[in-house]
Amino acid sequence: MKKTIIGVDIGGTKVMTGLIQVSGIFPGQVRLLRTIEEPTQTQGHETVKAQLARLIEGLAGPKLAGVQGIGVGVPGPLDREKGCLLKAPNLPGWERLPIGAWLERRFKRPVAVENDANAAALSEALWGAGRNKRFVFYATISTGIGTGFVIDKKLFTGYTGLALEGGHLTIDFNGRLCKCGQRGCIEAYASGPSMVRRALETWPSLPKNLDAAMIGIRARSGDRRLQTFIDETARYIGLWLANIVNMLDPDIMILGGGVANLGRPFFDVIRRTIPRHSINPQASRIPVAPAKLGRETGVLGAAAAYLTN
């Protein structure tokens, strides 16, 4: 049995849509047929809706022939029952956006809306680095830091549905101000923009168009000060993940997003740091792995959200 689903991944910098085919017994085999992406529109609800409609129709035509449903990953907390994005911390003005209901009216297909990090966690648990694991913790480290936790192929969402906002766990309550309004969140230290901000504060002579990928390239090219900086960022993440181990004791911790592409030495520092700060005497046994599904994790996650809705 085959199902064809449209996955929509709405990020802080881009929107990607994918036409996805899933076959076999759940979770089955997944195949991404094609994708379309554009920079994220931020000029009000109607502009956002127009972009989503254009990208979805670009994949499957205005009538979505052969498509069973639509899954959407959104960049913030949501009212899951209503399919409404409540707030997007990294997209000012994106508040109370009723994506699910609007898409259902527009395309006459069932729609599942999920937080983007939760959706990505599902995709990695079903088809990626966490396949065949029972307790899968996932973090995407990019424009922000989002997290999800999957138990036996089902998302853990908590009492109010907003569990695992792990990017806003503090590592220093007197620390840096985060966009969420709190101080010392891991996102204020280790997200891509936060890394750039910290680097430019320390070395104002660095290029003003610096990004996390450039920091990694310059470090690998022999810039020892930036390699030390990356190691410091990895220690922040290791300290944070030690707290995750203390709370959740997962089978595996998977890191995705741009910052997680900094390479093996980055992961090695994280792995060494975790046991030093965890009360769990077996913390070093818990693998920390890069995400397997690459830049398509989000659209596949949106499809996973639809399948498990």
Report what the structure shows.
The strands form three sheets. A five-stranded mixed sheet has the order 3-2-1-4-8, sandwiched between helices. Strands 11-10-9-12-13 form a five-stranded mixed sheet, sandwiched between helices. A three-stranded antiparallel sheet has the order 5-6-7. The relative contact order is 0.16. The protein starts with a strand and ends with a helix. Strand 5 (78-79) and strand 6 (84-87) form a beta hairpin. Helix 3 (116-127) packs across helix 9 (297-308) and helix 7 crosses helix 8. The chain is built from nine helices and 13 strands. With 309 residues, the protein is of the alpha/beta class. It is globular and about 55 Å long.
Shape: globular
Task: Say how many strands there are.
Answer: 13
Class by helix and strand content?
alpha/beta
Unreliable parts: none
What's the SSE pattern? EEEHEEEEHEHEEEHHHHEHEH
Largest sheet: 5 strands, mixed
* Share in β-strands: 15-25%
Strand order of the largest sheet: 3-2-1-4-8
Tally the helices: 9
Overall mean pLDDT: 91
CA gyration radius, whole angstroms: 19 Å
